[in-house]
Structures
1.
Amino acid sequence: MMKKIQFPGLNGVRFIAALLVIVDHTELFKSYLGYPTLWANSYSAYLGAFGVSIFFVLSGFLITYLLLEEQQEAPIRIRHFYMRRILRIWPLYYLILVLGFFVVPHLDFFQLPMYSSDMGDSLHRLLLFVGLAANVAFVYLPTVPFANVLWSVAVEEQFYLFWPHVIRIKRYLPWIMLLLLTGYLSLKFYAGSVDRQLELLVIRTRFSSMIVGGIGAYLLFYQKTVIKLLYHRLMQVGLMVLFVVMGLDWINYHSLAWMQDELISLVVCGLILNIATNPRTLISLDNGLFAYLGKLSYGLYVYHLFTVVLVLKGLPAIVDLQTLPSWIGYPLTLGAILVLTTGFSHLSYRYVESYFLRKKVRYSAVLSGDMVEGTKYNVPSTKSSC
């Protein structure tokens, strides 16, 4: 019988990550259009990067755990792994690519000052996006409005070109994970002395966050003693405090600024392990609303820029955002953006994504997430070290 795993609360984590990105871009686009904005505050401009870090850690954790489960019964079927990634990621990725390159540039309504760019000479950008290298295009070439958000999706796809092969190396797996993490950090540390754009590319290609998530999955799978330490109430409180303080950008990292993303990833990984696997977690995100919104998180992420523009340009026909008190204006605009984005994402999930997700089952040795509604994850007994 096929294994079934559903980590409670992970959809809630997905929604929180998407929400942080949406808030960040809402404030940024307000600044482009000359509306009152929180963009000048450091924490507002930082929320998007923070949310993407959560996505990366969560992806590394979940994919690694599912691969470890699959490997318990038989060798990992690499072809099937890539088919699952293609069916989950490519439909929306290439839909947004087509919209960003071939549709939006011809719609005056979606043109924004300081954001829209000339798409007349975009062959190099197009080839990079098509080749799942949107992160490279983001750093080295002009912006592709509404499609640049795909950079993080491309990073994940690049990471998973080699990660399942790493997981197959059972005997030395923890050491190889640590070696890869150390290698990435070394490259990140020295890239700035070589070239500024190379440094930006390494920072944006955040394999380290996914490796941290993978290490968390390994510990959960094989090292229950370590996980029990993370379950302690004081540890949970400490992780929650650090999460809030880091999210508000209140920490001055000084000489450790070059590994800020990795420190955030460690905290996020600790919280994910508690939310998803701790029977006495202090944070429960396992409810119907979060489950629904988290299920739509991929759509929320890739569609929200369109709805931000629709609301910020369409709402002034009803109310004057310039004179509206901030305590009304902020929740009004963000609420409208969330409702509209959720609506688009729901339609996308029901009529586009679900079709491809159903096809994933034939390539899955372990069912997870929405494919096993109602099946909860149980904290495993300690397994022998690999």
2.
Amino acid sequence: MIKKKSDGSYEYGNLYRSEDKVYPREVKGRFATLRRLAMFVLLGAFYFGPWLTWGGRQAILFDMPTRKFYIFGMTLWPQDFIYLALLLIILAVALFFFTALAGRVWCGFACPQTVWTEAFTWIESAIEGDRNKRIKLDKGPWNFNKIWRKSFKQFCWILLALFTGYSFVGYFSEIRTLSTSLLTFTAGPWEWFWVLFYGFATYGNAGFMREQVCKYMCPYARFQGAMFDHDTLIITYDTERGEPRGGRRRGSDAKAQGLGDCVDCTMCVQVCPTGIDIREGLQYECIACAACVDACDTIMDKVGSPRGLIRYTTERALEHKDYHLLRPRTIVYSMILLLLVGAMVSSMALRKPVILDVIRDRNTLYRDVGRQGIENSYTIRVINKQNVDHNYKLSVSGIPGIEIQTDAEFSIAGESVFTLPISVTAPHEGSAGGNVIEFTLESTDGRGVTVIEENRFRGPTDEY
């Protein structure tokens, strides 16, 4: 920034303004309890998820080297990538739907940034003390008390961050094998890299940047306004009831003094993890954690006023109008969500446990084998998606007299790929040109599985 001085010279300033550190005060209340419960449930699921077993193996494992995703009793292959795409679309539509209903409830209670920041803040408060003690400690000189508290806090933060990175990699590399390799320093370079990288990202985001991630890095804060309407539940300050704000004695008649219910205690600002004043209206920095609701309710109880000065409500309700749950955007979002979930569930329920691929030999168009007819060569690849062995029989149809010359009955081990080169012959009559044929794979162990794959049978174009 350039500023002209009185003597005609210019003063050059810095365009960057550093943010003041936010010291959120600890708050108690129903939303704080719900937020902590969500933190314990989500972190518990994340940290203990890799240790769950199912059928003698890790229950949740994204095995990248073998390109298999294990999710409890289900094994997903690269051919099942469509389910990942569907899942991401469902999550996106669900985010739009719940945002239209209850604003940024995801950010306040379930977002990883919020959850890990809550955990890091809890460690900080346990070691350095409450809000006032933390402010005093930061402003004070570097003495023994400050050094050991700051050092121990950093140690705990780094330990939790590294454990987070280790747990994350445990979803992609078998957790028990990973534990042994890390302890014996025999882990691969990529495993070390992702443990340290994810740990560093957790340490930086939850320990230092905190609200800066929500305010400046998260794109959701920018486009959330497009999903809000007058019937969206948001955390808001009741200006009509609270203004004009001002201090008063307990038990005094605020109306007689010309005051609203707000006592201007600033507790709503002190408990806010992003450091905003909700009384200034809805702001994109608000993550809907409802800490200000708990704080304000506590103050209202103390001064003898009704709760709800700051509350979850809608703009329409503040205007004393009826709330509309069913409205065009919620109906459209819910219908799309139901269709997508239904499509995914039905597709997975009807998913074939086996994949059949037929690859025609392109090096040799066809071979005339005399009385046997015309011969084409193929490579059959069968993928058994299940984790148990199964028996199958392969047949071919589409041309009268067509048959497979190779043994077409075989057994496939669980979660394996079976490859078999075969020869198919057909009489000269009816095999001229290109004919569509069908390969049928049937289970012979009573499972009733049938898979059909089309291909072409090539023959001479001249008539015999």
3.
Amino acid sequence: MKARIHPPTRSNLRRLAAELRRGGLVAIPTETVYGLAAHALDAKACRAIFRAKGRPANDPLIVHLLDLTHAEELAEFNDAARRVARRFWPGPLTIVLPKKPCVPGIVTSGGPTVALRAPAHPLARQLLALAKVPLAAPSANPFSYISPTTAAHVQQGLGKRIRHILDGGSCTVGVESTVLDLTHSTKPRILRPGAITAAQLEKVLKRKVATQNRSVKSKAVLLAPGMLERHYSPRTPLRLTTRPVAARQTALIFLRQPAGKQPANVYWLSQRGALEEIARNLYRVLREADAGGYRAIQLEKLPTTAGGLAAALNDRMKRAASR
């Protein structure tokens, strides 16, 4: 039976919250991408996430909650972590900290740390408030495939593996959260770039924030999701290029809309090349090109001089194109 997409009515939210409390799975909208949610303190429910996604056990889950007060019930916070949480939560920032014993090992892949986030999407927050439990929620897609930014994307990928999808429209950010490791408060480092940039974090922390640029091999134990070399990938072979060039049976994806009328194999991520619009559209356009029956996809990459959100976009593009 195909997963049902539920409109965000009050009665549906109450029904889905009850489903989560009793150990069920529900795909939920966040401002970044759709997540496949389960009761984070229920090990059996969290194992069901791994089965539904085909996710390897060494790839930990992000736990979603309402606020800092709830987060401190699950992890050992330091002053630096409290400062960034107060500044950027709710929002697209995940913080990695030493976990408390109540967090099941399946959530952290057996590691001593847990990744925590307070989402900003109003429906995610309503569901958290109604469920009254923290929610583990990786992206709601088959493992390593392109992340979903609409309810229809979730249904296309996991429609035969789960029963419930909450429709919250299109995601406003479009790429996964920034993951910040604050296990050692004096050595902050970004494990996965996102909409919250290193420069923004440095203003709050008053110190340099390092970025881990090295990918992790598939069998390594991960501190946080999104660190594997290949991720967010279409099934069609993808190549990054400074300028897509016409080739037989190839989809061409440009950063900005080309001038004039274009053939059906030409796609673009933004009318004028705005980074926020590129981020919102990246996964949707990759999915459209992947469904087009092409032998290959060429994707125009961002220049290395582009700042801010470009770091997150370049990271996702590089992992999507990895062989």
